[in-house]
Design goal:
By secondary structure, the chain is of the alpha+beta class. It has three helices and ten strands; from the N terminus they run E-E-H-E-H-E-E-E-H-E-E-E-E. A four-stranded mixed beta sheet has the order 4-10-9-7. It has a three-stranded antiparallel beta sheet with strand order 2-1-3, with no helix packed on it. Strands 5-6-8 form a three-stranded antiparallel beta sheet. Strand 5 and strand 6 form a beta hairpin.
Length: about 150
């Protein structure tokens, strides 16, 4: 089943992408939730015209995202957590990374940060998606509280 996405859907595609999904997933989830609509020939023509008009606006959005990426790379991220030896009491997730970035002056929504769940001290890397074309790897370090 071919659908045009109205919103970004994780592991499926981004807004205005034409994607092929299984019939049940499209009929029972994507269309009723308002995430997509059918990709008919007329809908594809309308989408092509809208994308053509939006292309020059997209260049400014990408340049803004790259500027934010440069600012994020300048921030040194050190997260202090309670630990017994190398093992943490609890875990560090993307929520904690988003909080540290907010203290550094860059507010990034936690759903755009992919880091996994970390339960040991050390150096790690998180992926931050600022735009569909601008994804950066952000190194961070977890330090045991003394």
């Amino acid at each position: 089943m071919e659908l045009i996405l109205k919103k970004d859907v994780q592991n499926v595609g981004f807004k205005d992408d034409i994607v092929t999904v299984k019939n049940g997933y499209g009929r029972n989830f994507l269309i009723p939730q308002g995430h997509a609509h059918l990709a008919t020939s007329s809908a594809k023509k309308v989408l092509a015209e809208n994308l053509k008009q939006r292309a020059h606006k997209e260049a400014k959005v990408i340049s803004d995202a790259e500027a934010i990426a440069d600012a994020l790379k300048a921030i040194e991220i050190k997260i202090i957590a309670k630990a017994g030896g190398e093992k943490l009491f609890g875990s560090i997730t993307n929520i904690d990374i988003a909080a540290v970035l907010a203290k550094g002056g860059q507010v990034i929504d936690r759903k755009f940060i992919t880091s996994g769940i970390v339960k040991r001290t050390g150096k790690y890397s998180a992926s931050v998606r600022l735009h569909r074309d601008v994804i950066i790897e952000l190194p961070y370090e977890i330090i045991a509280e003394e």
